[in-house]
Structures are given as C-alpha cells and as structure tokens.
Amino acid sequence: MSPPPFAEPEATDALAACPICRTPQTGRYCEECGYDYDLSSPSLRQRPADPPQQQTYGYQPDYSFQQPAGYPPDPGISTDPQSVYSGYDTDFRLTPPAPEPPARTNWVAVVSADRDYFAEMMARSGPEAQGLYFPPYCPERRIPMTGRGQLRIGRRSHHRGTVPEIDLSVPPEDPGASHQHALLQEQPDGNWIVVDQDSTNGTTVNGSPDPISPHTSVPLQDGDRIHVGAWTTITIHRA
Questions:
Q1: 8 Å CB contact between 155 and 168
Q2: Could you tell me which of 71, 174, 180 has the C-alpha nearest to residue 114?
Q3: pLDDT at residue 78 is higher than 60
Q4: For burial by CB atoms within 10 Å, which of 2, 108, 112, 161 has the most?
C-alpha cells in the first residue's frame, strides 16, 4: 500500500492577511479594502523624509572649466562655481567719447584802399611817385583765409604765371605792388604769419615806417594791418 500523496499547501497560507478584512496580500494594496501594506512597514515609517529637491530647468550647468593646454591662464575665468562670473562686470563699461578737437578759428582778410597809408607813401617817395593818384572808387573785398593754407599777395601776370589769391591787379590796379609781393601762411595752431617775398617797395605792418625783412616770418594778431603797394591795406580779422 502506497503512502498517501503529500498535500501541497495552498499559496494563500504563506501570504500575509489584510489586518482589516483578512484578505490574503497579493500586492501593496489590499484588493478588497485598499489597505496599504507599505505604510505599515516599520522600515518605511522610520525612514526620514527626503530633503526637498531644488527645482532646475534644463540641464545642470557644468562649472568645471579646463584651460586648454598650451594657453596661458585667463585671469578673467575662474573654475570656482561660486566665482565663475567674478571676472565679468554686469555693468557695461563704455569707452568715453574722445574729446572733440577745438573748433578752428575762422580768419578773413579785408582788402581796402587806405588813404592815410597812401599819404605816408607819397611823403616818403621820390619824384617818380608824383604821377600816382588815390583811386576815387575802390570797393572793399573780404577774402576767407582759414583752411587755405596760404594766400599769395601780388598782381596777376600771365607772362610770369603768377595767380595770387589776393590779386591787386583788379581795378583799380595798385601799381606799387610786385607780382609776387608777400605771403600769408597759416600755422599749425591756427594763427597766421606774413612773409615779404623780397618785393620792390617792401611790406609794412600796423603803420610802421620800416618794412619787414624779406623772407622773414612775422606773426600776426587779430586786427593787424599789412600795407603793400601804393595804397593797399590788408586787415586780418577773426571771423
């Protein structure tokens, strides 16, 4: 006679029963009453809550910058996450504009027939000047000087090829002026000088009886008067 077969225990005998409805446990929650078995576990009840995680968006920035080999260290870059931006200023530092150069002073030469100068010239001249007469009509001319570099004073001559900027050959022509009489020249500081070009009758300044030396620079000031020829006076002014 063979022994009776071994009886397999039912699977439900090894399962924990729900403490509420005594239904065998098949998962975390009871199928009948919804009891949560994990909440009753001592290990879960004693585990401290996880610290709150800081909300981040996108990917976590990587501050571990490595300087490429062969390059000197950049003083503006730091590998410290707390000071990675310390080498940069959040305020935009704009380069201040360069100071504007001082405005150039405008000068003008006023050309006129000077009766007083003509009288002085006649008193100092010899008999050869007796046939000269002061012009009855000689309109004043204003000639800009600034930016032109230099202005030649004289009389136009097609034969000599001279075309002065201050032409004293226009009516009434001053016969006492040489074709290349004098030169007005601008200086780097904006002021002007006059140079006599070894003229026949010479060049005087501000009524002086003595002419200036030929090829010698004479500084000029605002209001100075340059006398050339028989009656011409050129007064320079700051415009």
A1: yes
A2: 174
A3: no
A4: 112
Count Cβ atoms below 10 Å from residue 122 Cβ, excluding itself.
15
Structure tokens at 86: 């310390």
pLDDT, tens only, 132-144: 899 999 999 999 9
Per-residue pLDDT tens digits for 156-174 = 988 878 899 999 999 999 9
pLDDT of residue 48: 53
Of the candidates 74, 95, 96, 76, the residue with the CA atom closest to the CA atom of residue 86:
76
Spatial distance between the Cα atoms of 189 and 90, rounded to a whole number of angstroms: 44
- Nearest CA to 179 out of 204, 195, 159 is that of 159
CB neighbour list of residue 181: distance below 8 Å, 6 or more residues apart:
153, 154, 155, 164, 168, 196, 197, 199, 203, 228, 229
